[in-house]
Amino acid sequence: MKISFAVTPAADAPVLALPVETGGMVRLSGDTLGEAGLRLARAASAGNRFEGEAGGLVELFVPAGEGARRVLLLGVGGGSEAEWEKAGGALTARLLTSGVESATADLSGASPSAKAAARFAGAAAQRAWRHDVYRTKLPDKSKPTLTEIVVAGAPEGTQATWTAQDAVTQGLALARTLAAEPPNLLYPETFVEQVTKSVDGLGLEVIVLDEAAMRAEGMGALLGVSQGSAREARLLALKWRGAGEGDPLLALVGKGVTFDTGGISIKPAAGMEDMKWDMGGAGAVAGAMKALATRKARANVIGVMGLVENMPDGNAQRPGDIVTSMSGQTIEVLNTDAEGRLVLADAITWVQRHHKPATIIDLATLTGAMIVALGHEHGGLFANDDALAEQLLAAGRASGDLLWRFPLGDAYNKLIDSPIADMKNIGGKGAGSITAAQFIGRFVEEGVKWAHLDIAGMVWADKPGATYDKGATGYGVRVLDRFVAENVEG
Fold this sequence. Notes:
Layout: E1 2-6, E2 15-21, H1 30-47, E3 57-64, E4 67-77, H2 81-95, E5 102-106, H3 114-126, E6 148-152, H4 158-180, H5 188-198, E7 205-209, H6 211-217, H7 220-226, E8 234-241, E9 250-260, H8 280-294, E10 300-310, E11 321-324, E12 330-333, H9 340-355, E13 359-364, H10 368-374, E14 379-383, H11 386-399, E15 403-405, H12 410-413, E16 423-424, H13 432-441, E17 449-454, E18 460-461, E19 471-472, H14 477-487
């Protein structure tokens, strides 16, 4: 989707969107629509009970020269950034397959802030993302036609702010594409290939470890998950030095299980196809790193992705096995479907040993218990530092990737003690998301600030949202980018 900016809308623009704040119909003038058009607009809004609510739309045709102009009254609610974002997504959703190729949104009568206008444009672009590459018989009326939205009358500073929004939009597209790809085509090796190709030329240092290199590092926890698959595991790291030489201040670590059968502890057949997006944490890290590099963030950040496929093979890890992690700690594997934490354990140890970050944020589609607790409205947040937790919560609210904090503590930690190893990879029936976080926390070195984001309910959606259609959401990219912008960049 192309986003362009103009001072005023073109006189012959065939499709015009007019933002309307709550209760703002009375302030709509006839300067753009003409008196006849204004009467039609007010009648249409009354007939549709439209009051300017965010994301609300009323569509009509008004006289224009020898013909008619298509006009959309577009609700922006109270005018907050989030409401403008919702309106931008709603505009694209209405027009994407309508036959319209270009639309103009005239913001001059609504006076949004530069950030709100940029969020509007960002949502319009983000909502257009689709993954139709494998559809060979898509009906013409279902094919996207909208290729451009012209934003007219935006306040001064919008285009500069849009640059950052455009970078995030590109990062979201990468994360969504990775999650949507089928597992026969996206596996550890091809994940590395796709990400490397996508970030080529952005100035990121790319580090790839194959199984031999990981074995030499002693990464027995991650490799134990992979041993049942015909596809070899990989560790992928993207290093961004936007603040000059030196160790990265922040490490982003993502779980990248490109398909998860559950291994020997196999999942039920119904819905197992969804496990192609069990690499959503790694996808979010890849997308965030692309966004940071694209907008040239003034920060040193490394993104690490542990990439495996979890399969039930004759060589697969068994319940009851004991593996030795890179940290030297031993793990009794009681359930092979609790595999993501094993991958994260070694990825976190690797980045601490080789890159010494002061702060680590890991992201993972880790537990079904998180969906039970929060549904599909928030990601779960666990942290060993209150200030870090508050920064992430604030970044979630500001970006739209909402988070909710859960507790950690010794009582939960004891639930994963093993009688024959340093720990076991599951606790009891209760507090499954918390014991999973406690497990990961055992691999964080003393003095390192750490947060764990359990995003199991957020990377895939069964219904459209403000910035995405059904399917991959790209959740995690926006909150990570906002966190870096507000807390890491100098």
